[in-house]
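Subject: for your reference before the review

Hello V.,

The reviewers asked for a structural picture of the protein, and I figured it would be easier to keep everything in one thread rather than splitting it across files. Below is the amino acid sequence we used in the manuscript, unchanged from the supplementary table.
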Amino acid sequence: MTTTSTTTKQPRQYTSLIAGQPRTASRAISRYAPSNGVKVAEVNAADSNVVDAAVKAARRAFDEGPWPRMTGFERAAVLSRVADLIDAHAEELAMLDAEEGGKPLKLARGDIGGAAMLTRYAAALAVEMRGDTFTNSGPDFTGLVLREPIGVAGLIVPWNFPALILCQKLPFALGAGCAVVAKPSELTTGSAVRITEFYVEAGLPEGVFNLVTGDGEAGGALAEHAGIDLISFTGSTATGRRVVEASKQSLTKVHLELGGKAASLVFADADLDDAADGVLFGAYFNCGECCVSQSRLLVQDSIAAEFVARLADASARIKVGQPLDDTTDVGPMIHDGHLAKVLGYLDTGAKEGARVAVGGSRANAGDLASGLYVQPTILDSVTTDMTVFNEEIFGPVLTVTTFTDAADAIAKANAVQYGLSNSMWSKNIDRVLNVSKALKSGTVYVNTAIDAPPNMPFGGYKASGYGREMGQAGFDEYTTLKSVNIRTGRRAGTFAITAPRAVRR
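And here is what came back from the structure prediction:
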């Protein structure tokens, strides 16, 4: 299917859903499609009173309701039904994310498939949730380690992968037995509202999952609410710091997945055809609005000129277009302020001495004139002291820096404040293993880019945050441990200290 216009004649109306019921506040936010400026949604903006009501509903559901006390099989059955509903409504969900966020429709479809996969994987982990047992501390002593849900989780979801990142968090929290209050971005609310409705349809008990719609006011109220036991936030490093500050008063546990400035390290012994394809995919995927975007190319100096020429030629053929056109590779920026920010980085790069190999300006010809588009851009001759080397641009921009050997490549890859991901391209297994271990990032892609299954944990080093999503580690974020020390028989005496347990609490 190929279409170039929005599918809605009237803007969609979104409001908070608390215990399955709509809850409104006095303020509304209009959302305009970044592809053409058409109003596609009006989002009711939750205030602190609405957030408080959502947290209290989740608190009641967790403290008094059946969900945390249900078996893992019972929770998994609900999650599996939701995954089926996501699959059944995949095209609808993909269209919502494409219209509201400017995401190319073919990529949005992939996101929705990933959301269903993550939900099914979390269902499997719910069945396997377990603690531990210690039976070797003496004949009269047994130690049990119980793994329990942490409580009420607040999930703050960004605009760049609305359905996918929601499902990197939500089914894992629910599978562990938590109750949840989630806040999607005001820019991309639609798919989260529909997925909330799917949970109601699938039989999730009342109040276990609540959605608050709105902007930073709602997010701030959620982060600082004393009734929240864990905040999981995905977004910018600057906002992540504010989330941590907001959580301090109540000492809420915080999990952060923040900014990135990933590098693609291309060595001379790589399959250069494969590497060129992967480097461009890593740089331009999701319009470059991706925390793991491979936005820095570090290429060995002996092949740099030929490789950059190859990239520039291929980059010029990438289609910038309307998100709902199936042939589009790169869509618009999320909003006009972000467009200005990306274009500002292009100006800064040129002033600091970078050479524009391809692109370098706004794309506004033909049916792109009313949208927020940037040409896929390669900035060559970038040095490590340049702004574009160090700061997250979050657009379809690739910088090029050369290196001499593995040590130089590692040093330049690790030179930025971020540590979310990197990729490397080489056919030398010794180099692959040694460089992978030396890179300071939570993920390393080898001979691929932005490519990982749901059972692999994901998260960052340094200013890219802490905690993990996906995998067993991502599930465990929503749990806490309790030690149960059991003694059988009679104690030797009230104050007796007997071997082998010399340490008592």
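For the response letter, the relevant points are probably these. The first helix runs from residue 48 to 64. The chain has a mean pLDDT of 95.

Happy to draft the paragraph if you're swamped.

O.
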